[in-house]
Amino acid sequence: MSRQVILTRREVFSSSHRLYSDELSEEENKKIYGKCVNNHGHNYVLEVSVKGVVDPKLGMFMNITELKEIMRIYVMDKLDHRNLEGVPELKSIVTTTENLSIFIWDQLYPHLKQHLYEVKILETENNFVIYRGE
Ligand SMILES: Nc1nc2c(c(=O)[nH]1)N=C([C@H](O)[C@H](O)COP(=O)(O)OP(=O)(O)OP(=O)(O)O)CN2
Ligand SMILES: [Zn+2]
């Protein structure tokens, strides 16, 4: 019997950002995003989940070390200790947690393919977003 499991790796990255849309006026930005138009920082908690069938011989379908390395190269090295507005791929988007989760999915998908199940990001301990590639 094949057993499908979901495996999750958690990382924390620290980034600064502000919520600001180039498509809005200064006044509209202030009205919509409030205090978040000012530069501020978060210790984002990122949880990436992969799904697969356990190989009975190995007791796993993916080594966490491999997942950790993929997350390091394609997410952590790009976002940790950065100002998100300075990350080239994020230049033209508003760095909401929603957009970050989609960005991270797109970074990881080519390397995890059908195994990638969920990207979850906690911006604060109260606010988080889940993206499953839909
Ligand atoms: N839909 C979204 N709304 C907001 C986002 C977002 O990513 N998506 N982000 C922010 C800000 O970036 C902001 O930093 C949130 O901080 P804050 O309001 O201080 O966070 P908390 O809700 O955890 O703090 P409280 O103490 O509970 O107010 C805003 N909106
Ligand atoms: Zn913020």
Automatic annotation (TrEMBL):
Please provide, alphabetically and separated by semicolons, the GO molecular function terms listed in this UniProt record: 6-pyruvoyltetrahydropterin synthase activity; metal ion binding
Give the keywords, sorted.
Lyase, Metal-binding, Tetrahydrobiopterin biosynthesis, Zinc
The GO cellular component terms are: mitochondrion
Q: Which residues form the active site?
A: 36, 81, 123
- The name of this protein is 6-pyruvoyl tetrahydrobiopterin synthase
- Record family assignment: Belongs to the PTPS family.
Task: Enumerate the InterPro entries for this protein.
Answer: 6-PTP_synth/QueD, 6-PTP_synth/QueD_sf
Report the cofactor remark: Binds 1 zinc ion per subunit.
Gene3D superfamilies in alphabetical order = 6-pyruvoyl tetrahydropterin synthase/QueD (3.30.479.10)
User: Which cofactor names does the annotation list?
Assistant: Zn(2+)
Binding, Zn(2+): 17, 40, 42
Q: In which pathway does it act?
A: Cofactor biosynthesis; tetrahydrobiopterin biosynthesis; tetrahydrobiopterin from 7,8-dihydroneopterin triphosphate: step 1/3
Mind listing the GO biological process terms from this record? tetrahydrobiopterin biosynthetic process
